[in-house]
Amino acid sequence: xxxxxxxxxxxxxxxxxxxxxxxxxxxxxxxxxxxxxxxxxxxxxxxxxxxxxxxxxxxxxxxxxxxxxxxxxxxxxxxxxxxxxxxxxxxxxxxxxxxxxxxxxxxxxxxxxxxxxxxxxxxxxxxxxxxxxxxxxxxxxxxxxxxxxxxxxxxxxxxxxxxxxxxxxxxxxxxxxxxxxxxxxxxxxxxxxxxxxxxxxxxxxxxxxxxxxxxxxxxxxxxxxxxxxxxxxxxxxxxxxxxxxxxxxxxxxxxxxxxxxxxxxxxxxxxxxxxxxxxxxx
Length: 282
Ligand SMILES: [Zn+2]
Known about the structure:
- It contains 6 helices and 10 strands; from the N terminus they run H-E-H-E-E-E-E-E-E-E-H-H-H-H-E-E.
- It has helices at residues 4-17, 41-48, 146-153, 160-164, 175-185, 198-217; strands at residues 23-28, 57-59, 62-67, 70-75, 80-85, 95-101, 107-112, 118-122, 259-263, 266-270.
- Zinc ion binds at residues 251, 253-254, 256, 271, 273-274.
């Protein structure tokens, strides 16, 4: 599943290869890819043809391409890929939507094996599409306001990892980056958000930004080998993870075996020594 740095890499690829070009035709190849476009695939095709793409923007894991006042909104889901390439290359089985351009240059293909991803046209959504207006800014956006987020986190009676994953508080932090940032900041995932000191929350977000920055400079990472970036090159990057997926391996900081706990039907990885578990409340 692509995480925020991978989606940012895709956004940069779209900015380089797609912005400034005018859509010629849109070919829907699978109805599920357009299920969020409630007016149906025919409307999507009619509403997008002939429109010029003027930008490539992102909030959390959503991407949007402004076309006039509207926006072409995309979410990659679990396995989605946006592929730019020679328009004559053969269609692979998982391509769900193909977009060609009036300049007859490279086309854009939305490929998605597991079909959790989707495209839609958001009317009036060029600045911020309505379907994602409730999503909070992510830590890589200029609009991210650390002081405001810190105040909202400290108002929560919830574990800090759960707060980090809450897209209405801060977007774009998934399970992998939450665990890595908490390890770096030496904070246990179950610590109560409202009991953290402001300095600890500052350290935690500095850690979030560091792990994102490292991932971005390495070209994105994911554990899903299905994910390919906008040029069709693999976005799979074997980053040196410190705790995520490393139960039983030594903590790179202190050598204590990393611990895995069940967490919201998934897992939380932490170092029992660097990130001591909070004491249970009496
Ligand atoms: Zn440790």
